[in-house]
Design brief:
The chain is built from 8 helices and 23 strands. It is of the alpha/beta class. The strands form 6 sheets. Strands 9-12-15-18-21 form a 5-stranded parallel sheet, covered by helices on one side. β5 and β6 form a beta hairpin.
Length: 327
Amino acid sequence: MYVMDAVSGAGVDHAVVVVGHKAELVTKKLNEQRLDLRIDFVEQAIQRGTGDAVLVSLVAVPDESEDHDVLVLPGDSPLLRAGTLRNLIEQHRASGAAATMLTARMEDPTGYGRVIRNKAGTVARVVEQRDASEEELSVNEVNTSIYVFRRSLLAPALRRIEPDNAQGEYYLTDVIEVLAGAGHKVDSLVVIDAEEVQGINDRVQLAGAEVELRRRTNEALLRSGVTMVDPDAVYIDTTVQIGGDVTLFPGVILQGSTIIGSGTEVGPNVHLIDTVIGENCVVRSTSGESAVVGSGSTVGPFASLPPGSEVPSDCVTGSFYTAEVSG
């Protein structure tokens, strides 16, 4: 969803999502979200590489888009910003290139495909780590798997690639060499912050990405008028809505479709999921899920708000309170 938000923010109005493993779950989750772009799903029944995935996806791209550009990116880069994609698209169109790659320079490029340039300094090809020579492995400019292609040239180039590599897969990166070898210009944009394009391959990287995403979320809320006593100790989903002049104390976890009304104090040690808290409330050491608290109420400490429960407006619950479920 973070990737789709970046794509939408870059001005894209139609996205094709290639699904394979757990396709039904991915499709269901994306369909449940509200997005400002149309999404079509295409299944890659047999995972035969990134090149094959893109070729499969083109069946959902209208024929009348031959003169358009196609943005291609992986679904596991949650730190990617919309502004970076806009810059990539703008440079691609300004240069008239057949393809423009987003690249990054890394002190430790281990695991990434290396960008190999020709004598003129333009991109000639990309070599994957497992297929690279010792000289190629010394290159610190890496492929981020994010590209813009001229639609009319992409499909013919994809049909020319072969699974001649250690994995026996159709690499999308081979399209770069096909286009460059045919005399087409392949341009590149080096991303300013390499961390922004890092993929998620294990739970260590996932935890690191979550730290950065939480920092971005909290910074945006602070700038909007929310007070956090300790931003590092507050965990808020991007789907949560928080009004002005709200104060959040350490140990606050707000998830799902939770809404916090203006002027409310929350925490310390409050965990709310899909819960609505009215304006000018005080909520201390409380857990709640799918509950409603009316404006002007004081809840807790050590209160429990089970699903379907409701606390009336201007109510003081006292300690160890358990709300009754309405109906």
